Amino acid sequence: MNDIAAVASLADFETIIEARRSVRVFDTDHQMSEEIVENALKAALRSPNSSNMQMWEFVRVRSDEMRAAMAPICLNQSAAKTASEFVVVVGRANVYKERAAFNFNQLKAEYGEDSEAFQKVKDYYGKLMPMVYRNDYFGIIGGLRKLMGAAVGLFKPMVREMGKSDTYATIHGSNSLASMTFMYAMKAQGYDTCPLGGFDSKRLKKLLKLKGSDEVTMVIACGKGKPEGIWGKRHRLPYEEVVRKV
Ligand SMILES: Cc1cc2nc3c(=O)[nH]c(=O)nc-3n(C[C@H](O)[C@H](O)[C@H](O)COP(=O)(O)O)c2cc1C
């Protein structure tokens, strides 16, 4: 394990946490180089994610034409009208077989096919993940899986969230963590972001040519923030009100 305390401190991280704000107005005269978003995305790809399935895709929207098309889809919010680039974080529910196979093959190569370590994870990616992520349009498979889980749960602790909507919740959870890493990595390079949930998902999917089973977790507007883009102080509930010790 790296001795992280030797290279960074909580204070360094606090600086970034404190500096990141949702910025609603970006400098449209500023040229943000391609590498800024690329660097931040490379950081985001290392985020924790459920079973390392990485069921995500990050669509970069940078051309003038596509950015112009994005603004009305994002309800003409000022962040969307002034962004230098958008990153659209997409959950791809239909890539589970490939992603399970990726992990299977990586671990086989890392541990060796006959190793004890590989025997432990073989069925996880070879059988369990393809089973857990499989869904149909109507959610019937997920419903049956959930029932099966509930039956097992009568006798021992069991994950209960196994329906189709649970699959998406898991994907969006992982994608949100990657989004957060991305936004901190943008701030660490002196750039700003605004996560946007206010968009027309149907029109956005059409514009980006996404598949029916894909879902957009969030749109992240990026650029050099202007001071007027910060709308006020940060208001947060007190620690005591939202943290409970048991
Ligand atoms: C999932 C999500 C969706 C959001 N959608 C929007 C949005 O559509 N428009 C907007 O201006 N801000 C949006 N925000 C930003 C929040 O309003 C903002 O994070 C919150 O007010 C706290 O401010 P801060 O980010 O500056 O700390 C969104 C944030 C999240 C996490």
UniProtKB/TrEMBL annotation:
InterPro entries: Nitroreductase, Nitroreductase-like. Residues 17-224 form the Nitroreductase domain. One of its GO terms (molecular function) is oxidoreductase activity. Keywords: Oxidoreductase. The keyword Transcription does not apply. Gene3D superfamilies: NADH Oxidase. Belongs to the nitroreductase family. This is Nitroreductase. It comes from Persicobacter diffluens. The lineage of its organism: Bacteria, Pseudomonadati, Bacteroidota, Cytophagia, Cytophagales.
